[in-house]
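ENTRY TYPE: paired fold submission
RECORD: A
CONTENT: sequence, then structure tokens
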Amino acid sequence: MRHLPRLVLVLAGLLLAPALALADPRGCPHSADVMTASDYLLVDPQNAHRFWRDRQGTEAAYLLIRYGELPPAAALALTERLAARQRPPERIEELRLVVASPDRRLAALASPDAAQAALARTPSVQRALILDGEWPRVFADLAGRATAPGGAMAEIALGRALVDLDDGEKLRLATLAEASGLWQLAGTLLATRADLSPWLASLRRSPLAPTGEADLAARFAPIWSGQLLPGRAQPQRAALPPELAAAVDRLGANRPAGAADMDRVLALGFIAPSTLLLATAANQSGDPRLGSEVAAPLLAAIRSGRQSAADVDGLRTAILERSVAVLGLDRARTLFGGVSRQPDLWASGSALETLERSVARRALLAFARGEGPAPARPPLLSPSFDWAGWRNAAEAIRAGQPAFDSYRGIEAELLHAMGRHGRALRLLRELGPGDENRQRAYGMLVTLDHMCGGLLSPHPWLGTPLFTFPPRPR
């Protein structure tokens, strides 16, 4: 049985899901490399082709501000320089409003310009306004749109953007939201607290009050399953109010066959976004073993600390190895060959190509470091895979020499996989700011940020990241 409707629903929710806590970049050993990658992506390729769009510059600027701990004036100056370009980065005006001082932000939003009004309704700007004490403005705008199409989702999106606030502040804002008639916002804020009793009480007071036990279970299901805040630890059943514990029992009794297997695949994708191609493959194939025999062991390894969620190549190599063991080599190749890649750092192509590149990088690491003989061609690789070219790049790294020109991008990929991130980024800088190299640098930036705790949240392979900053001192 295929799970397409549920998969689409869950992944759509990820587009709005933020990190569970605002990460602190200080002390991360990769902070300097994050800033180097950001600097590279902020170079303006002035000779870019006619239809070129800067889709990575704003996220790079955001990370440069956060990891570089730029003071407010410097952060604003950076966004203003980028906004003044002939082809400014996408979303740069949104970031500029977020980093602006409260007075400058309010002055900008007072403009009759429709674009400014639209920016005021993005979760990043709404969050900034609320943290600066402007919650009445935000709540009034939401209340005016509460019954319009998309009004409920706007409330939920804002609640998710505030998930890192402490439980006391979330309770305070939820109380104010209720008084403004923003029941979805109040419910989302309360659903992210450790104690769910206020959520249940608010639900019962609201116009959405459940009509019975089955209705309560249905309303609690997104919280219990993790769909409201993907990646959030499941609440402890013993800590739930009795009514919610009973709802959990009802949900378990009515669980459809095969749901547990797809849950494992999705849970793995929430924790390790580099594995999302498995979710698409599992949905297309309908084979439950991709959940029970491929996703489940990897999920357990990550949760136990034996496997890093940021180890892109390790996870993807394991996915292909385990899928081949379950499906057979030909069927696994056919399945992943029919899945579009996710937008990460490697060249365009199918999910199969993405997986095989991870296999190649992983196989060549020790050799490139000078730690052993050249490995044999991995049997997982398709006959068309250019193993000789990849080996040439690894040999060049081992010898301390540049690879052939056509393999220099692969050389950068291998250097990054070896942990020589600075050298990989310097090589990309030497090669110039072309589209393919920018995509590689962006993928490296995303991976490095994920290794540091994930300020880009949701992960860019899941959706559009928020621009979040800690509350200003008052």
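RECORD: B
CONTENT: sequence, then structure tokens
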Amino acid sequence: MALIKADGSVSYQGAVVDTSEHYWMDGMLSEYALVWDMEKHQYESVSIGYYGADGHDFIGTRAVIDVSTEVARDIIRTLKRDAYKDFCRSVIKKKNRIEAGITARVVRGRKIPKGTELDVFWVGERPTYTGYGTEMIAGCKDKNGNKVWIKAEYLKNITPLKSPKAVERKKYMKWYIQKNAKGLVLQVAKGV
């Protein structure tokens, strides 16, 4: 079973992963079902119940949690793809980050010539001149040992960083899947 409407029709058969409730301040209660859309390959939240303060259900749909093996495996495949993309994004972000201990090249600005290589020893925030928000500042030393303070956005990281190993990627992907898949989905996908 899956979502059973008041007229007896069934939808999302084998694709209902979880249910949840939300209590509103006026005493109303909303019920939702988390379902998997096989065409879009993503979770969707479907409203299945809306109860008045007197307990009357205005929608009249019942949900029975039911995950088929095909749906569970599609969820896991999609989560693996998303985990790999997320891992790649985090590696690129790490390689481009300006932080203490790296070597950076000046790519913008007018006080320090472009192309100058600096060793970054400190990175922090300071208020902007307008008073709205903050900006990242890097404390650096040039090849002569002179201290230079420059906006972090004017620098490009040129330190060669090691790419993560396959073991680290697999560990991240396993964590990502366990975090985003419901326990029932993992059990059904394994055939337990």
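NOTES ON RECORD B: The chain has three helices and twelve strands. Residues 178 and 192 are 16 Å apart (CA to CA).
STATUS: closed
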